[in-house]
Amino acid sequence: MRFLNALKNDFRFQIKYGFYFLYAFFSVVYIVVLLITPAEYKHMTASLIILTDPAMLGIFFIGGIWLLEKGEGLHGFWNISPLRPLEYILAKAISLAALSTVSADLIVLIGMGSMAHFVDLSFSVFFGAVVFNLIGLMIASYAHSVNHYMLIVCLPTAFLSMPPVLTAFGITHPLLELFPGTALWHMIAGTIGMTRSVNGRTAMVLIIWLGLLSFLTNKRIGAALQSEGGQDA
User: Fold this and answer.
1) What is the pTM of this model?
2) E strand intervals along 21-180
3) Which of 52, 140, 163, 226 could disulfide-pair with 66, CB 3.0 to 4.6 Å?
């Protein structure tokens, strides 16, 4: 019950600070881009659009949410919060991932028509967005301000974006397949008919990343909240 309450509060927080509007704005822009894209380039364009936005957009937004909460002094109440760090983390990551999933589905539905397996697409985007949201939240915990966060997150985001982009354009290497973005791109490409199907191996890569990042983020965010708000709940 407390996790569901945390999830509901995160949805309200996102609405309050206009994150829904931002997702809607970017969705409309990319729908227009897909509608005017020639048919022979539509699948490639769609795969990269969904990968970088909305699937990876949360890496920026979740940092903003963390810093907005910090600026409002909400972390100072951590010592009296019933939430465990992992519940706090997952509520943030899942709420933004759900928004990313809706955005991706609408982009493909309107921009490409029915040329997608929407159940698989939703699963892929949601799963991948959670992974990147965890990365963003962990990076945000080291930032002192929004400007500082935007500075320190750019290099990791570029580093994570390059392997799937290279793969999408046919530049492949076994090491590139180990990156979460590459696995996510393969899954997205499979759901929109660009490749044959979603490969179980790529899903396993994301599962491993999810487990590793959940552990690391739990440790880091737990320590950060404790330092800002007192003893761990």
Assistant:
1) 0.91
2) none
3) 140
